[in-house]
Design a protein that fits this description.
Order of helices and strands: HHHHHHHHH
CATH superfamily: Ferritin, core subunit, four-helix bundle
Number of helices: 9
Radius of gyration: 20 Å
Helix content: 55-70%
Structural class: mainly alpha
Largest sheet: none
Number of domains: 1
CATH class: Mainly Alpha
CATH architecture: Up-down Bundle
Number of strands: 0
CATH topology: Ferritin
Shape: globular
Amino acid sequence: MDDNAYAGLLVDDAHWAFGEAAHDDPLAGMDLTVPDGIDPVELASYCLVLGDDALVLGHRLSEWCSRAPDLEEDVALANIALDLVGQARLLLARAAAADPALVPDLPEGSPVPAEDALAFFRDAGDFRNATLVELPNGDFAETVCRVLVFATHRLALFERLSDHPDRALRGIAARGVKELTYHRDFAGRWFVVLAGGTEESRRRLEAGLATVWAHRRELGEDPQAEEVLGRVLDAAGVTAPDVRPPAILGGHTPHLTDLLAEMQSVARAHPRGRW
């Protein structure tokens, strides 16, 4: 009997060093047949948009690790980041399955799964996320506002996508609804608390909301989301800021390039990395 605790690590089963095992399909068990009447390229493009939003915001929120106001919020933001990265993995995998041409070319023999190739081996110009999610973190109040606006819009969207003709996207959305409900409620509670706290907490909240509010239109016109946001603002006694959309709306800021340089550096340096 082999009692070496490390023996299992010596088996060459093609684990990529910077992601899941190459054979571990995140969409295993899902029906990946594209329904009649659905353009696979358009489906893939749509999943890529949703996946990029989740991936980039997940990375931004991970930057709060060990920096939040207290341990409970530190853990909460880390969990929200993990939820979003999980959504990104599923959505990028669905995009790659629907349109394999989206996946970047990698060195022959690379064990990188398709969803990780999309995450780590595309340049900023190929990402399709909203600028809202790529902006640098401000203070805690601004992050609360960003999570509130993003999660409220995304929850309303995922509730509709739970009836999408594509079974895989439908399943991803149904799972995401539970996660996004928590994200929205976490941010909504903190929004009300900060609004009713000190003069300083309210000042920071209103400043953060003004920054975020200008970008929310990137997420689409959604009456359901706007109604929910309106109720939260009313509960907090906060007036929606009168701000214009930024000139960069629909494009990217230099902040995305900086974010990707950090997120992708190790994977790009070792595209054949195994463990």
